[in-house]
């Protein structure tokens, strides 16, 4: 790989990569060769005859015809030279083999529309910024996984084909399943709770989730990677929030250490490891705060709308200097039946949404584990207990107090890197009109 060349001594090398630029000068040719690890300058002094006239020999003739993006393998002499701007090394060419000639007309350019770039995603992903996004994602996931494993969590892989909905029926993908119907999992919700009935205690899953959401917002996709965790023996949703904080601190610390400088250089963004505890504000109070800032909340009895989320985030940043805020105690009327309600006020739930840089990245809650109350809450929400018999059975055999959260991985990356759309940070985006590539 190109990045390993810097550590080698002067001498013969072989390297492959994509042609980035060609400077075809009279006496010398320069080629910048790139791979995912970096770039190196190739130099080819032209051969001249006795009268000083340039001779058309190899590899000079081939270099003159190279199109950008062609994939080549070269051999030559590596030389360390501080004067070379690109990494202080260059390769004096001996041979150049063209493996693939790129089609000269590149279908996308830096100013192409996002949609066009997504059509040609494999070319789009060659940009160093895109490459960094997915290396960063790997680091972030790895750090979370290390946290879970160090803390004795069990990793689950739950089925994505289900017999019933786990969240709102409105966003459900139905698929033919032999002579019956199946649904794509919107969340591992029921299965991660089942693990508590099974006595697993602490679990996590990073896997796909599907939502038949027809909207074209910058933060929704029809398939996304959901980061889920669920724990038993909790006193309240406060325990879930603490787990969530520790996990994010682990993830952000690793990202800052490994990629902080690159993120600053390529995205102009400083990665900040959040301090704990994150601010916590009950939803009703948050609405009063944004109203006092002059923002008209569309509905008092509904979720915080996207502009409200931005307003409360701005308030939290100004007041506490924090990029995260837990909005807690959502009204029971706008939460799923499985959220536990407060003992002294059943109109509010022991739940939260986590807002990061002005957008929701997660929902979490303590779950209702008492079967009678759970059935009542399901009926009240219009969920037919017969349809979720299998789920309700968990609670007929005793489940400890428990809670957990689901977090959209791409949302975290989008907000961490100040990207305008989830499409930029999703390897292959899926939306209402996009099923390819
Ligand atoms: P919720 O429906 O709020 O909660 O989803 C949890 C988180 O998943 C992400 N998310 C999405 N990301 C991209 N595109 C979408 N269409 C999309 N929908 C959701 C968001 C969101 O905050 N079962 C509960 C979680 C729990 O209580 O454990 C659930 O799914 O980041």
Automatic annotation (TrEMBL):
GO cellular component, one term: aminoacyl-tRNA synthetase multienzyme complex
EC numbers, comma separated: 6.1.1.12
All copies of domain Aminoacyl-transfer RNA synthetases class-II family profile, residue ranges: 134-437
Listed GO MF terms: aspartate-tRNA ligase activity; ATP binding; RNA binding
Pfam assignment, any one: tRNA_anti-codon
Chain positions covered by the region annotation Aspartate: 189-192
Record SUPFAM superfamilies: Class II aaRS and biotin synthetases, Nucleic acid-binding proteins
Reaction catalysed by this enzyme: tRNA(Asp) + L-aspartate + ATP = L-aspartyl-tRNA(Asp) + AMP + diphosphate
Binding site for ATP: 360, 408-411
Binding site for L-aspartate: 167, 211, 363, 367
UniProt KW keywords: Aminoacyl-tRNA synthetase, ATP-binding, Cytoplasm, Ligase, Nucleotide-binding, Protein biosynthesis
Compartments where found: Cytoplasm
Listed GO biological process terms: aspartyl-tRNA aminoacylation
Keyword set includes Cytoplasm: yes
Role description: Catalyzes the attachment of L-aspartate to tRNA(Asp) in a two-step reaction: L-aspartate is first activated by ATP to form Asp-AMP and then transferred to the acceptor end of tRNA(Asp).
Subunit annotation: Homodimer.
Family membership noted in the UniProt record: Belongs to the class-II aminoacyl-tRNA synthetase family. Type 2 subfamily.
PANTHER family in alphabetical order: ASPARTATE--TRNA LIGASE, CYTOPLASMIC, ASPARTYL-TRNA SYNTHETASE
The protein's name: Aspartate--tRNA ligase
Biological source species: Cryobacterium cryoconiti
Upper lineage: Bacteria, Bacillati, Actinomycetota, Actinomycetes, Micrococcales
Gene: aspS
């Amino acid at each position: 790989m190109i990045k390993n060349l810097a550590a080698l001594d002067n001498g013969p090398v072989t390297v492959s990569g994509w042609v980035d630029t060609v400077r075809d000068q009279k006496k010398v040719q320069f080629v910048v060769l790139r791979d995912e690890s970096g770039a190196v300058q190739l130099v080819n002094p032209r051969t001249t005859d006795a009268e000083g006239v340039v001779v058309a020999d190899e590899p000079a003739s081939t270099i003159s015809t190279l199109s950008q993006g062609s994939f080549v393998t070269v051999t030559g002499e590596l030389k360390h030279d501080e004067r070379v701007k690109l990494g202080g090394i260059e390769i004096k060419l001996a041979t150049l083999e063209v493996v693939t000639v790129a089609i000269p007309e590149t279908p996308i350019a830096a100013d192409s529309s996002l949609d066009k770039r997504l059509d040609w995603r494999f070319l789009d992903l060659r940009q160093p910024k895109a490459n960094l996004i997915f290396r960063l994602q790997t680091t972030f996931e790895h750090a979370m996984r290390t946290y879970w494993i160090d803390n004795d969590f069990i990793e689950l892989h739950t089925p994505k084909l289900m017999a019933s909905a786990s969240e709102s029926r409105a966003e459900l993908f139905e698929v033919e399943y032999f002579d019956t119907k199946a649904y794509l999992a919107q969340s591992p919700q029921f299965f991660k709770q089942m693990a508590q009935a099974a006595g697993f205690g602490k679990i996590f899953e990073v896997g796909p989730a599907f939502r038949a959401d027809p909207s074209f917002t910058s933060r929704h996709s029809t398939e996304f990677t959901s980061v889920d965790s669920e724990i038993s023996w909790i006193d309240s949703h406060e325990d879930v929030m603490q787990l969530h904080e520790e996990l994010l601190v682990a993830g952000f610390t690793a990202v800052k250490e490994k990629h902080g400088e690159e993120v600053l250089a390529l995205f102009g963004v400083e990665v900040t490891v959040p301090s704990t505890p994150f601010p916590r504000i009950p939803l009703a109070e948050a609405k009063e705060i944004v109203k006092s800032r002059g923002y008209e909340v569309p509905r008092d009895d509904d979720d915080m709308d996207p502009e409200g989320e931005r307003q409360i985030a701005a308030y939290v940043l100004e007041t506490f200097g924090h990029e995260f805020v837990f909005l807690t105690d959502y009204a029971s009327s706008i939460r799923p039946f499985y959220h536990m309600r407060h003992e002294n006020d059943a109109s509010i739930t022991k739940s939260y949404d986590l807002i990061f840089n002005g957008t929701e990245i997660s929902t979490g809650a303590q779950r209702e584990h008492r079967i009678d109350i759970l059935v009542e809450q399901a009926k009240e929400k219009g969920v037919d207990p017969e349809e979720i018999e299998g789920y309700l059975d968990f609670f007929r055999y005793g489940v400890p107090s428990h809670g957990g959260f689901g977090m959209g991985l791409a949302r975290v990356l989008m907000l961490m890197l100040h990207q305008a759309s989830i499409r930029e940070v999703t390897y292959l985006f899926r939306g209402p009109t996009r099923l390819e590539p």
